[in-house]
Automatic annotation (TrEMBL):
Residues 148-240 form the Mandelate racemase/muconate lactonizing enzyme C-terminal domain. It catalyses: (1R,6R)-6-hydroxy-2-succinyl-cyclohexa-2,4-diene-1-carboxylate = 2-succinylbenzoate + H2O. The gene is menC. This is o-succinylbenzoate synthase. It comes from Litchfieldia luteola. Belongs to the mandelate racemase/muconate lactonizing enzyme family. MenC type 2 subfamily. Its cofactor is a divalent metal cation. One of its GO terms (molecular function) is O-succinylbenzoate synthase activity. The keyword Metal-binding applies.
Length: 379
């Protein structure tokens, strides 16, 4: 039976630090730990929902960091959530909208509301979102390797594990030759490149060469906040451009599609401010015939579970970056962990995100916690 409004009694921010199995190298440098918040949200009935913040410790991917998330959640967003009951999770982004950007802070809290809402209704989150799949195909994201030979052997490992799509990070000097070698060894695998804004329009000849390699897409080749130059580049490339960092909202997606800046969109729940906005982008892309897939932010299990749920929506037609928990973690904070079998995740049919939070593991990796109680609701 669908319950009436949600009155949040308590929000706990668990500050987490988890050591990655392998260091993660980006244009900003290499990091070995993922710092993030687990949002635990209890309502007046005692039901508990969970969310996870996506921002990294330094502002290399977007302007947000773990610290900015903490500040904005504690000072602005949590008080807004506690001030009055919520009728539906779609209301949360509305309540937050006068606060500029800070999407990953917003998304961490909104995700907990969605989980709580689904649990109160006794439904799996994916069903509350209109998901249609009982299993999802997933790919894997591979960092820049020292040599083409190293890259081929890493790809081979994941092909043997059954992953359905290989995403290879590229940068000037580590692009065409590397990808050509992969394509030579694996003529028919689903192969894409992620450039993380490492190129400019001056590199157009290099990027056009990638057209020979039958790539599914080139992800975010140009500046992180651009859609104009991407439109110029897309008009020159046969390979579809996929935008990631450029898309922070439904409006960004609408404008990029209208300009022809991309033919595919990587939806990251944190980057766009939450599940409600992700669904809006998904639905618009379905209308416009633009394929979408679910990107990753090296999430732990709660964020990974939210990604699984959103990927069950029908326009998520390309395998995304939601690898198994074991890709990054010795042990994950959920039970069971996210398991990939032959490139497929079976979507759990339990209420909410469908995975239990393993409190023992959560407390093992937790460095601090802060509790926010709603004075208007007695414990
Ligand atoms: O979470 C994953 O498994 C994939 C992570 C990943 O590929 C990325 C995370 C953040 C920025 C980039 O480096 C890249 C991406 O662009 O999606
Ligand atoms: Mg990307």
């Amino acid at each position: 039976m669908t319950q009436k409004t949600i009155s949040i009694r308590e929000i706990t921010l668990h500050r987490m630090v988890m050591r990655l199995k392998d260091p993660f190298t980006t244009s900003f440098g290499t990091f070995s730990d993922k710092e993030f918040f687990v949002v635990e949200m209890e309502d007046e009935t005692g039901a508990i929902g969970f969310g996870e913040s996506a921002a990294f410790s330094s502002p290399w991917y977007s302007e947000e960091t773990v610290e900015t998330n903490k500040h904005v959640m504690e000072q602005f967003l949590i008080p807004l959530l506690l001030e009055s009951p919520i009728n539906h999770p779609d209301e949360v982004s509305k309540r937050f909208e006068f606060i500029r950007r800070n999407n990953m802070a917003k998304s961490a809290l909104e995700g907990a509301v969605w989980d709580l809402y689904a649990k109160r209704n006794g439904n799996p989150l994916y069903k509350e979102l209109g998901g249609t799949k009982q299993q999802i195909e997933v790919g894997i994201s591979i960092g820049i390797q020292p040599t083409a030979k190293d890259l081929v052997s890493v790809v081979e490992g994941y092909v043997n594990e059954g992953y359905k799509r290989m995403k290879v990070k590229i940068k000037p000097g580590a692009d065409y030759e590397m990808l050509k070698e992969v394509r030579r060894h694996f003529p028919s695998i689903l192969l894409m490149a992620d450039a993380n804004s490492a190129y400019t329009l001056d590199d157009i000849d290099t990027l056009k060469k990638l057209d020979d390699l039958d790539l599914m897409m080139i992800e975010q080749p140009l500046a992180h906040d651009d859609i104009i130059d991407h439109a110029k580049l897309q008009s020159e490339l046969a390979t579809p451009i996929c935008l990631d960092e450029s898309i922070h909202s439904f409006e960004d997606a609408r404008k990029a599609i209208e300009l022809g800046s991309c033919k595919i969109i990587n939806i990251k729940i944190g980057r766009v401010g939450g599940i409600t906005e992700s669904k809006k982008i998904h639905d618009y892309c379905a209308q416009q015939g633009i394929p979408v897939w679910c990107g990753g932010m090296l999430e732990a299990g709660i964020g990974r579970a939210h990604n699984v749920a959103i990927t069950t929506l029908p326009q998520f037609v390309i395998p995304g970056d939601t690898a198994g928990s074991s890709r990054y973690w010795e042990n994950d904070i959920i039970d069971p962990e996210v398991i990939v079998e032959n490139g497929v995740i079976h979507v759990p049919n339990k209420p909410g995100i469908g995975y239990e939070v393993n409190r023992k593991v959560l407390e093992h990796y937790r460095v601090s916690k802060t509790v926010f109680s709603n004075k208007n609701i007695l414990a």
